[in-house]
Each structure stands twice: as C-alpha cells, then as structure tokens.
Amino acid sequence: MKRKLGAPQAITATAHKLARIIYRLLTHGEAYVRQGLEEYEQKTKARALKAIQKTAATFGFKLVPQESLAKVVS
User: Fold this and answer.
1) Could you tell me the residue range of the domain that residue 54 belongs to?
2) 16 has pLDDT over 70
C-alpha cells in the first residue's frame, strides 16, 4: 500500500482495515480467525480465474479448463 498510495495514506488504510476488523469482532462477538495461506491462495486463484473469464467473455471467447481438453484429445 505504501508504494501505491504513499506513507500517510498507507497508514490510514491500515488503520481503517484494523478498525473494520475490531468493529466486526465487537458487534458480532466472533473470534478472529486468521485466514490460512492455502485458503488465501485458493481465493486469489478463484478471483483471478473469474476476472480472466469475464475478460474473455467481453471478447466473445469461452475458456475451457485444460484437463477436459487433454481427456478429449487422448
């Protein structure tokens, strides 16, 4: 964030993120569970795939997973 926004805005963004987490904990009474690395990578991959599919659709293409293509060709 510091590289994109600069130091003052990065500090504000981080403080805002922490404030949102603390507010959610206090209002809903839930325990904070830090997201695991595997779960984070899985969500990031799914988000990237969705974005690529959306971009392909705007150009009139449909993406097909590589596994299904290998089965058809074999």
Assistant:
1) 2-73
2) yes
| The one-letter amino acid at 36 | G
- How many whole angstroms separate alpha carbon 63 and alpha carbon 69? 11
pLDDT single digits (tens) 24-74: 888 887 777 777 888 889 999 999 999 999 999 999 999 888 775 556 555
The answer to whether the Cα torsion of 37, 42, 46, 51 is positive or negative is: positive
H or E stretch including 70? helix 66-73
CA distances from 62 to 1, 18, 32, 50, 65 (A): 34, 39, 39, 12, 10
pTM over cut 0.85: no
